[in-house]
Amino acid sequence: MNIRQIDLPEEKSRICNEILRSLPNWFGIESAIVDYVNDVKNMDTWIAEIDGAVVGFISINKHNPHTAEIHVMGIKVEHHHKHIGSQLVKVAEDSLAKEGFSFLSVKTLSESREDENYAKTRKFYLKNGFLPVEEFKTLWGEDNPCLFLVKPITAHHNFKKITAVMVHVPDLNVGLSWYMKAFPEASHIKLPEFDFEYLNLNGINIEIVKADEKVGTGPFGTVVYWEVENFGLTKSHLENIGATLYRGPMNIENGYKMCQMKDPFGNLLGLRGP
Q1: Contacts of 103 (CB under 8 A, 6+ apart)
Q2: Nearest one of 31, 21, 25, 24 to 57, comparing CA atoms
Q3: pTM (predicted TM-score)
Q4: Which own/partner pairs from 190-195 qualify as long-range (CB within 8 Å, at least 24 positions apart)?
Q5: pLDDT tens-digit readout, 142-182
Q6: How does strand 131-136 pair with strand 44-50?
Q7: Which contiguous run of DSSP H or E holds residue 96?
Q8: Residue 154 carries which DSSP code?
């Protein structure tokens, strides 16, 4: 996947129109679509592409030197749950951080009106660090109560979160295949322009790379721990596909257990869970 900023007003409008009309469960009001298509012409806009095809976009409205807003964004339904939206938000947020903005806001349909699609939208924004501030019951009309959410923008040079875990293996194909089995919930993403493949789980890249003389395989340094829903089942799953217990298990806080598992290539995975 490739994310890039676009500058031509006509291109912004065309892509906005295409994406929004592919999402009738979210954007079903014709006048609103027309307004969005016109509004984005003068807004910072980024698009997400897969194999050259645009699958999503985000447009940012800068209200003042301190606060900006996600004016509109959309991802084609067949590409939902692939962390594309989160990556678009991150790219926009990083750009705003470099410009000195302090807050990023967004408006969406409030839970006062039941809608399973917008329930997913609210969950997405909460997951990406937005906090609900206030409900405006009549801003969009009585039938469409508006929820206003905000998140602080962290300075771009600060640490934010773990973005990637790099695992060194002797054989790329064998290593990638094993980790696809180890993390069956992860998305498999290919970047042909870089001749690179990786997995993505909840926004964290699991990058399988070839070991070399600088970085080999084995349990010699930092161990990344994954929180799991069921400690015993996850431990058994990894053992069934060739991992071995390296250290533990031991009881820790909150009734959880933890252990270290060694993959077939000598690297360690940490598990924590009930």
Answers
A1: 66, 67, 68, 150, 151, 152, 153
A2: 21
A3: 0.58
A4: 191/1, 191/2, 192/51, 193/2
A5: 888 999 999 998 754 455 577 789 999 999 999 999 999 99
A6: unpaired
A7: helix 84-98
A8: P
